[in-house]
Amino acid sequence: MGFPLPMDNFKNMSVKIKCVSKQLPKYSRKTEEIIPFLDTWLVGQDARFIKKVKKIFESAAVDKRYSIMDPIEVFANTSFEERNDIYVREVIELGEKVLEKSLIKADWNPEDLDYIITVSCTGIMIPSLDAYLINKLQLRQDIVRLPVTEMGCAAGISGIIYAKNFLKANPGKRAAVIAVESPTATFQLDDFSMANIVSAAIFGDGAACVLLSSHNEDEGPEILDEEMYHFYEAEHLMGFKLTNSGLQMVLDIEVPETIASHFPDIINPFLEKNNLKIEDLDHLIFHPGGKKIVQTVEELFSDLGKNIDDTKEVLRLYGNMSSATVLYVLERIMDAKPQKGSKGLMLSFGPGFSAQKVLLQF
Q: Gene3D superfamilies of this UniProt entry (predicted)?
C-alpha cells in the first residue's frame, strides 16, 4: 500500500529563477551606420517618403542593434530559403552558447536539466532548436522538451509560465527556457509598408536563457503567480504572414492604444488576486515593444512614481529582440541585486493578441 505525499510538501514548495544570461550575435551596427543602407534600399522612392523612413529610424529610441547577418546581407535580395538557412545555423550556435553560459553561471551540469523549452518565432526549423541542444550539450535522453514557436514577443514569459507549472507539479526538478530570435531575418526587401519599416527600425537579434528550479537548495527570485490575458477580436494586431519571400511583419498602428485601453483589466485584477496594488511593486520588468508602447506604459505608471528605466535602456542598447527582450530586462534587474522581499512584475504582449504576466518576489 502506497503512502500519499503530504500536501504541505506542495504548499511550501516554490519555483525560483536561478539565473538569466544573454548572448548577442556577432554583427552589430549603430543606427547612424544603418542610414546609408536605407539610401540604397529606398532608391527610386519619393523624396518625402525617404525622409519619413529615415526619421522613423532616427527617432526609434534604438542606438544600436545586433544581427545574425551583416547589414549587406540583410539588405541583399536573398531568397526565403537562404535567409532561413542562416537563421537555423545561427540560432543553434546562439542557443548553445547561451545555455552553456547559464549552466556555468548556475553551477549546474547539463544532465541536471529535467525540462527544456525553446522559444523562437522568426524562422522555421524542424527539428526545433531544443533537439539540437540536447545533442550539442548531451542533455539527458529522458529530458522533457517543448518548443514554443508562434507566440511572438510574449513567448519569453510564456516559456517561464510553462516551466513554472511543470516545476510546481514536479518538486526537485530543474528547467531551462531558451529564447533565440532574429527579426532581421524577416526583413522584406520589396515591402515598403509602415509595418516593415517600423519593425526594421526597432528590431534586433539576440538570445537569452532563464534557468528555473523547484529544488529546495536553489536560490533566486520566487515566482508567486502567473497569468495570461487574451484580447478578443484582436488577431489582426500583430504577427507574421507567410509569403513566398518569407515572414512578413504584421504590426497594426492600434497596438499602443489597445494596450492602454485594456491596461487596468490586465494589471489590477491580477495584483488584487495577490493582495497587491501597483504601488506595492518595486520592479517593473516590461518588454520594450517599441518607443510608442514604452511611452504608453510609462505614462500609465509615471503618476504612481514608478519607472521603466531598465526597459528603455534595453531598447536603446539592443532594440526589440522579440521574445528574448524582456529576459534582458530581467537580467539587468537581477544583476542589480534587488532588496530581499521586493516584488517585480514581468509583462509582455504578443500575437493573439495577448498579455503574459509573472509576479516575482526577490
A: 3.40.47.10
pLDDT for position 72? 85
Per residue in 309-359, pLDDT tens?
999 999 999 999 999 999 999 999 999 999 999 999 999 999 989 999 999
Q: Are 350 and 151 in contact (CB under 8 A)?
A: yes
In whole angstroms, give the CA distance from residue 143 to residue 133: 11
Q: What is the pTM of this model?
A: 0.92
CA distance 267 to 270: 6
Give tens-digit pLDDT for 197-231: 998 999 999 999 999 999 988 899 999 999 999 99
DSSP state of 55: H
3-state helix, strand, coil in the chain (%, to 5): 45, 25, 30
Give me the domains of the chain, ranges plus CATH numbers: 11-213 (3.40.47.10), 222-361 (3.40.47.10)
Kindly report the number of other CB atoms within 10 A of residue 341's CB atom: 8
How does pLDDT run across 66-84, given as a tens digit for each residue? Answer: 999 988 888 888 899 999 9
Nearest CA to 212 out of 287, 149, 157, 141 is that of: 157
Return the amino acid letter for 167.
Answer: L
Strand 222-230: give its sheet, edge to edge: 144-148, 115-119, 174-181, 206-213, 16-23, 222-230, 354-361, 343-350, 283-286
Identify the DSSP state of 79. -
Neighbours of 240 (CB within 10 A): 17
In angstroms, rounded to a whole number, what is the distance separating the alpha carbons of residues 228 and 338? 25
Q: What are phi and psi of 243, to 5 degrees?
A: -120, 175
Alpha carbon distance 276, 24 (integer Å): 36
Number of residues written out for the chain: 362
CA distances from 271 to 97, 223, 264, 308, 343 (A): 36, 14, 10, 18, 11
What are the pLDDT digits (tens) for 10-25? 555 799 999 999 999 9
- All three cell numbers of 105: 553561471
